[in-house]
Write a structure and sequence with these properties.
This protein is an all-alpha fold. It folds into 2 domains: 132 residues, no CATH class; 107 residues, Cytochrome Bc1 Complex, Chain D, domain 2, CATH 1.10.760. The protein contains 11 helices and 3 strands. Strand 1 and strand 2 form a beta hairpin. Helix 2 crosses helix 5 and helix 4 crosses helix 5.
Length: 301
């Protein structure tokens, strides 16, 4: 009995030591964006393309935009998209542009703690210093709103943020967005949007038991989205078989209307309503061109 208790005490001590080590394990190095002027108009466009308004706003609540989104219910618990207005305590008004850059590109909070991957930071790592400066200028112009709509409600062990550092080591790398030399400018723009800022793979890729994107299943669809929703496969062969063309897909990203005359469901409908309908025709066409001719596998997939 004494030996068993001794072994158990040793295991508990090791677990505690491991937990403590994770808690103090730093995540990356804070980025140092070059000092430059931001274009708030372009930043607002990037915010639309990146889904910031769609996720961090809840029109059904009657609250102002960007004061926090509707609860996201998952198998790990419920996530609440936070306030992104310029309020110093309820929002991001006390942040520096360095804090903002680290949060967006690395998924790390100003206090050094990791964000949950419900925030698709893995897809934003490619954003340039100018992109960050433009986004920052746009968010600085959002009127401060003292409103906190709720906090995450997660069960053990998912409520322990330190464990996310292990998750990040395995799954935090996003798909490639760099230009491919022998492809057109339009195709490369579509790749930058689809694989990056628009983070299509966040919903259209199935996840494993710990929420990481499944290798080999990039853009192959998912039937395990929050709130029981699903996303169809959007690989080239799947889209072609479903009757999609470049012009049809570009039009659907603007209108929400599919080739058969039906409309997108609630999840994709919100993406169109708050995001892709605000993009230029050129960017919607670029996304369609890439999606219908994407033969380059995502890194790690």
């Amino acid at each position: 009995m004494r030996r068993s208790l001794s072994i158990l005490s040793g295991l508990v001590a090791l677990a505690a030591l491991g937990g403590a080590s994770l808690a103090v394990w730093p995540i990356g190095a804070p980025p140092k964006p070059a000092e430059r002027d931001g274009d708030a108009q372009r930043g607002a466009y990037l915010a639309r393309a990146g889904g910031c308004i769609a996720c961090h706003s809840d029109p059904g609540s009657g609250h102002p935009a960007l004061t926090g989104g509707a609860p996201i219910k998952t198998a790990f618990g419920t996530f609440i998209p936070p306030n992104l207005t310029a309020h110093e305590t309820a929002g991001i008004g006390a942040w520096s542009i360095g804090d903002f850059a680290r949060a967006v590109r690395q998924g790390v909070a100003p206090d050094g703690s990791p964000y949950y991957p419900a925030f698709p930071y893995a897809f934003y790592g490619h954003l340039s210093d100018q992109d960050i400066a433009d986004l920052w200028a746009a968010f600085q112009g959002v009127p401060a709103q003292e409103l906190i709509v709720g906090t995450n409600d997660l069960g053990f062990p998912f409520n322990m943020r330190a464990g996310l550092k292990l998750w990040r080591a395995a799954f935090a790398e996003g798909p490639p967005t760099e230009p491919v030399a022998d492809r057109s400018e339009v195709w490369n723009r579509g790749r930058w949007l689809v694989n990056g800022l628009a983070h299509c793979g966040a919903c259209h890729t199935d996840r494993n038991l710990v929420g990481g994107r499944r290798p080999g299943r990039y853009l192959a669809g998912s039937d395990d989205l929050p709130d029981g929703d699903n996303a169809p496969p959007i690989r080239p062969d799947d889209l072609a078989e479903a009757g999609w063309t470049v012009s049809g897909l570009a039009y659907a990203l603007k209108s929400g209307i599919m080739p058969d005359g039906d409309t997108f469901g609630s999840g994709m409908g919100e993406v169109v309503r708050h995001g892709t309908q605000w993009l230029t025709d050129a960017d919607r066409t670029a996304m369609a061109v890439f999606l219908l001719d994407n033969t380059t596998p995502a890194k790690g997939d």
